[in-house]
Amino acid sequence: MGLSGSDHLPGWEEEQSPPLVPPPGLCPPAAKVKGDRVSWAQRQGDQVGGGMASVESSLLRSLSPSPAPGDGEVELDCWFDEEFKFILLPVSYAVVFVLGLGLNAPTLWLFLFRLRPWDAMATYMFHLALSDTLYVLSLPTLIYYYAARNHWPFGTGFCKFVRFLFYWNLYCSVLFLTCISVHRYLGICHPLRALRWGRPRLAALLCLAVWLVVAGCLVPNLFFVTTSARGATILCHDTTRPEEFDRYVHFSSAIMGLLFGLPCLVTLICYGLMARRLFRPLPGAAHSSSRLRSLRTIAVVLTVFAVCFVPFHITRTIYYLARLVEADCRVLNIVNVVYKVTRPLASANSCLDPVLYLLTGDKYRRQFRQLCSTGGPQPPTTASSLALVSLPEDSSCRWPATPQGGSCPASGTDRL
């Protein structure tokens, strides 16, 4: 499997090179990463003059002709075995598909038919569930692709769409979770502002903006991604062609900073301020059990970031940098394995997001339990109780008097 400049991103493909025969005594070609170029004569001289170090290095490196037409040099490549990938990725994606579809499809049904009218929090959660559902529906093609050892028979257009859908889901999920975090922060730390900015119509417009902004930022990815033939095998590249790899890394880094780094920072700040406020005793505050539940909710969302999003972005950044600087073969082997092992975690958010709904909405939890046990019809329920930080139904407001004469917000406003 050749990891040339048109390599993959999490959960996608490796690029398989045509069978090559390495010089005698070197390991068989399993995967390669582009390295520096040296002539064959120079390589032989280095092996003779380098002593044991050169002999040891030859166990990991082999030579193959440079893919550039008319280039008389020979490219130095790093080979390593990736057979584990053809088991790890199909199995992990199959698990994500079964769990993600089994949890998100009923969630969409509940939001559409049993939890109307929506408040702002329910609006964010519905769009988060929709994003997860769209992604898991694309996983069967990837399961086939890896089980078939990197063979893509579905065409270039669908290859571009599947690659696009992964990042669309990934960054829409990040931004929807950030919207939920800001909404909770306003409800706890600035409740009067939450009455103004937490309206369902505004939340719906914000969700539409998230879909459009993320899609617009990812449009260049449709031009970078392509397919190529390696003998009878058709590869679905997740990055781009070798000659465009440097440009792709710059594009990918900018997208990561804009759609992950900045939202992650906002989420951490909001939750830090929320935790400080929740630990502070307040007159007329909700019972300690409600505050503990709010803190558990904060922990759940931060866990999604820590488990799904952070490892993927860190390992991907290190992997790209290692390829750009043409790191030592040993380093490339280590980074490559770690990167591929953590890639399925980026897809696992489709399974963890529904846990957020179950832990933070009492009425959602009751409706979901009823759906799983009997499936009998239930009367529509207002979704305002889905607020991730809520007061007991018999408690008084914990903020100053509202324009309605000091009463708690109506059911159309999140009880934060």
UniProtKB/TrEMBL annotation:
GO molecular function, one term: G protein-coupled purinergic nucleotide receptor activity
Topology with respect to the bilayer: Multi-pass membrane protein
Membrane-spanning ranges: 91-112, 124-146, 166-186, 202-223, 248-274, 295-314
Region (Disordered): 1-26, 397-416
Keywords carried by this UniProt record: Cell membrane, Disulfide bond, G-protein coupled receptor, Membrane, Receptor, Transducer, Transmembrane, Transmembrane helix
Subcellular location: Cell membrane
Entry keyword annotation includes Disulfide bond: yes
GO biological process per UniProt: cellular response to prostaglandin E stimulus; transepithelial chloride transport
InterPro entries hit by this protein: GPCR_Rhodpsn, GPCR_Rhodpsn_7TM, P2Y4
One cellular-component annotation, GO: plasma membrane
Domain G-protein coupled receptors family 1 profile: start-end pairs: 103-357
PROSITE patterns, sorted: G_PROTEIN_RECEP_F1_1, G_PROTEIN_RECEP_F1_2
PANTHER family per UniProt: P2Y PURINOCEPTOR 4, PURINOCEPTOR-RELATED G-PROTEIN COUPLED RECEPTOR
Similarity comment: Belongs to the G-protein coupled receptor 1 family.
Protein name, UniProt field: P2Y purinoceptor 4
Protein's gene: P2RY4
